[in-house]
Amino acid sequence: MSSTTFSKPVIKSPPGLPLMRQRWSQLLFAHWAIDPALLRPYLPARLELDLFEGQAWLGVVPFTMSHIRPLGLPAVPGLHHLHELNVRTYARLDGVPGVWFLSLDASLALGVWAARTFFHLPYLHARMCLTQTGDTLRATAERTHHGVAPATFAATWKLGETLPASQPGTLQHFLTERYHLYTAGPDLMQAVRSNNLWRGKLFHEPWTLREARLSEWDSTLVESHGLPTPDGEPLLYAADTLDVWVQEFRRV
Question: How far apart are the first and last CA of the chain?
Answer without folding.
Answer: 43
